[in-house]
């Protein structure tokens, strides 16, 4: 007997549809053995939502997401929409993404990045420095400067960065739990020498630490952390940080281990809300429509969807093993210095399953 699961797919813009198609073919391949029957609902979102309805998060799309078991997203945004926002005051695709994260209260964003075997030469770092890098960034996703008051004038503008104790506490607990299940080391990243929100962040993380005596905690300032990631990335295990710092550091880390095209993410809220799974990269307008995007970040996001969204751990591992295998065998998309296109990379992963 198979279990029917409802997946809402948000292909979005640019390379979004190319990489979500690749991930759907992988999900479809592993579903039967995992006892899953997939009921897929593709919905317009981001720029595609604006084109279809004028709204980056159309009402029907939100409805589908709310009633789904899990959501898979490609990417949103692009120059056409940036222009329309600038000149005609049109909504931005990115507002749809922020709106969806907030609507579903997806406060914890897991962004794992590790050096895959065989990818040493794709890293900009020296082999001995990047070796053994395996970091989980836990990024707070529904607070901070993204969601504070924004004032936009022609001469003065401001963005407010609020955080409450409760917002820090809940994401810190996710990070401590993750650290407990890995190597027991947590690095909390902030800017406590300047920001009041960072001093609250640090105090709350220290309070939560009392409930996790087996986890060691370090506090590191974000500017130094940006440096440590390129000088000693292998010395970190789990990193927890606020929304904007997590956005920036996760792109940096993804490039350190080879390419942003490899990096997946899971955005999680309470156990009864569907998770949102997406690669950390954007719509890559510079390569959109060419069929050359690296689909691995989205395929690994589909694996996270199986693990965190559907509790299908074995199927998730099958996908992760297939990805490791093809990379070890030398499969390289353009971003990794090779010439495999999206279709070839997807076929290789399907064959390795
Ligand atoms: N979650 C999201 O939907 C998301 C995330 C980041 C950026 N964006 C949006 O995407 C648009 C473009 O942003 P950007 O150019 O700063 O960032 P980007 O991540 O789209 O691209 C940065 C660089 O990485 C490359 N790249 C990204 N993904 C790749 C992949 N899968 N395979 C190969 N190369 C890949 C691109 O070609 C580009 O050179 C903007 O509108 C931005 O707001 C959306
Ligand atoms: C598109 C943008 C709003 C988004 C963010 O800043 O969170 C993106 O950069 C990401 O990392 O998912
Ligand atoms: Mg980002």
From TrEMBL:
Location(s), subcellular: Cytoplasm
Keyword Protein transport: no
Residues that, per the record, bind Mg(2+): 223, 247, 251
EC number annotated for this UniProt entry: 1.1.1.85
PROSITE patterns from the UniProt entry: IDH_IMDH
GO cellular component: cytosol
Main localization of the protein described in the UniProt heading: cytoplasm
UniProt keyword Phosphoprotein, yes or no: no
Binding site residues for substrate: 101, 111, 139, 223
Domain Isopropylmalate dehydrogenase-like residues, every copy: 6-349
Cofactor entry: Mg(2+); Mn(2+)
Keywords noted in UniProt: Amino-acid biosynthesis, Branched-chain amino acid biosynthesis, Cytoplasm, Leucine biosynthesis, Magnesium, Manganese, Metal-binding, NAD, Oxidoreductase
Cited InterPro entries: IsoCit/isopropylmalate_DH_CS, IsoPropMal-DH-like_dom, Isopropylmalate_DH
Site, as annotated: Important for catalysis: 146, 191
Enzyme class: oxidoreductase
Protein function: Catalyzes the oxidation of 3-carboxy-2-hydroxy-4-methylpentanoate (3-isopropylmalate) to 3-carboxy-4-methyl-2-oxopentanoate. The product decarboxylates to 4-methyl-2 oxopentanoate.
Subunit structure: Homodimer.
Protein name: 3-isopropylmalate dehydrogenase
Gene (UniProt): leuB
């Amino acid at each position: 007997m198979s279990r029917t699961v409802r997946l809402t797919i948000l292909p979005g813009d640019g390379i979004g549809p190319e990489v979500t198609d690749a991930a759907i073919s992988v999900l479809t391949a592993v579903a039967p053995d995992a006892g899953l029957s997939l009921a897929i609902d593709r919905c317009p979102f981001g720029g595609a939502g604006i084109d279809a309805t004028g709204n980056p998060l159309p009402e029907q799309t939100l409805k589908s997401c709310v009633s789904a078991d899990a959501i898979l997203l490609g990417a949103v945004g692009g120059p056409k929409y940036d222009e329309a926002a600038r000149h005609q005051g049109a909504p931005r695709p990115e507002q749809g993404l922020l709106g969806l994260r907030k609507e579903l209260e997806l406060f914890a964003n897991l962004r794992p990045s590790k050096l895959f075997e065989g990818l040493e030469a794709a890293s900009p770092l020296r082999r001995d420095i990047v070796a053994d890098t395996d970091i989980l960034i836990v990024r707070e996703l529904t607070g901070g400067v993204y969601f504070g008051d924004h004032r936009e004038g022609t001469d003065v503008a401001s963005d407010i960065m609020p955080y409450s104790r409760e917002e820090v506490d809940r994401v810190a607990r996710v990070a401590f739990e993750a650290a407990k299940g890995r190597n027991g080391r947590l690095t909390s990243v902030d800017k406590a020498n300047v920001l009041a929100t960072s001093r609250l962040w640090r105090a709350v993380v220290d309070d939560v630490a009392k409930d996790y005596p087996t986890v060691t905690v370090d506090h590191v300032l974000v500017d130094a952390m940006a440096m440590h990631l390129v000088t000693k990335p292998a010395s970190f295990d789990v990193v927890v940080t606020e929304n904007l710092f997590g956005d920036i550091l996760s792109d940096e880390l993804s490039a350190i281990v080879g390419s942003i095209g490899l990096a997946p993410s899971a955005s999680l809220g309470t156990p009864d809300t569907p998770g949102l799974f997406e690669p950390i990269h954007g719509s890559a307008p510079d390569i959109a429509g060419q069929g050359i995007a690296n689909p691995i970040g989205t395929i690994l996001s589909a694996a996270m969807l199986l693990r965190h969204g559907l509790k299908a751990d074995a199927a998730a591992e099958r996908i992760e093993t297939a990805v490791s295998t093809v990379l070890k065998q030398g499969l390289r998309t353009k971003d990794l210095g090779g010439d495999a296109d999206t279709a070839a990379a997807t076929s290789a992963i399907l064959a390795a399953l």
